[in-house]
Predict the 3D structure of the following.
Amino acid sequence: MSGITPEELNLLIEQTYKVEKEFSELKASYSHLQDTIEKVVEFLPNAIWILDEEGEVFLQNSQAKALNELFELLELKNDDYEVQFNSKSYLIKSSSYKDKLMLSATDITEQKRKENLATMGQMAAHLSHEIRNPIGSISLLSSTLKKRVIPENIPIVEEIQKSVYKIERIVKATLMFSKGVHANKTPFKWDELQDALVAAIGYYGYTKNITFIFPQQKFILNGDRDLLEMLFSNFLTNAIDAIELDENDDGLVEIVYERDEEFHKFYIYDSGVMIENAKELFEAFKSSKVKGNGLGLVLSRQIAQAHGGSVELLDKDRKGFEINLAIL
C-alpha cells in the first residue's frame, strides 16, 4: 500500500463504486429483461417450454404447466408434428437457439373438427347426389305399384313409401347442409304448415299411440314454408323417436304458440326419453339417436336463424325446445 498515492487510492475507490453501480444496473436490467420475457411467454396463447442444454425446463408459462403430462410425451425433434392428448389435438413446434430449445403446443382441436366436418360434408353431399335419382325412381314406382297391387299388399307398399320418405329427408337435409340455408320468405297461414306437418307425421310412421297437440290460434307467418316445414318436422320426428324408446305405450307431443312484439314463439314438448349429451345437440354429424345423422337440429337452428330467430333447448322440468321466428 506504501506504493499507492492517496490520489490513486481515491481513483481506485471511485472505479470500484462505478463498477459496483454498473453491475447493479446490469443486474436490474437483466431482471427486467427476464421479467419481460416471462410476461411475453405467459401472454402467448399456446403452451411454451424453454429447455436448457441438459433438457431441463428453464422457463414455461401457465398453459405449459397445465399440460405437464403432455410435455412428458413430446419428442425433441425439429419437424412439426401433431399429437393427441386427452381427446384434443395439439400441433407441436420446436426452435433452438444456442444452448436453448423452445417447444410450443397449440390446441388445434377446433381447426381439425372444422376440417373433418368440411370433408364429411363434401362426401355426404356427393353420396346424396348419387342416391337422389334412384330414390326418386323408387318413389315413383311405389306410387304406381300401390294402384295395381291387391288390397292385402297395400300395407307393404306403404312401408316402402315410408322408408323412401325417410331417405328423402336425409338426402334433402344433407344437400341443404352442404349448400347452406337460404330463406325465400312469403306470408302464409300456420294452418297450411300444420296440414303439411300432419301429412309428414303419417309418412314417418310409428308404433305407439301418440297424441299430437297443435296450436289452435290463427296467425300468419312470414317465411319460407318448405324450410319451416323441415324445421318443425325435424322436432316432431325427434319427439316420435324419443317416445318410441320410452317404456310407456302412449305418448304426447305438443306445440304451444305465443308471440310478443318481435317473435313468433313456439314451445315443443314430448313425453319421450330424456335427451343425452345436450352439449352435442347442435353439432353436425353427431347424434344421440341410433338412426340419426346429426343434421336435423343443426339445420333447424340454421333455418331459424335464416328467419331472424333461434332454437334453444329448454332448461326446465318439462323436456322440450323453444323456437323463435322473427315476425317481420
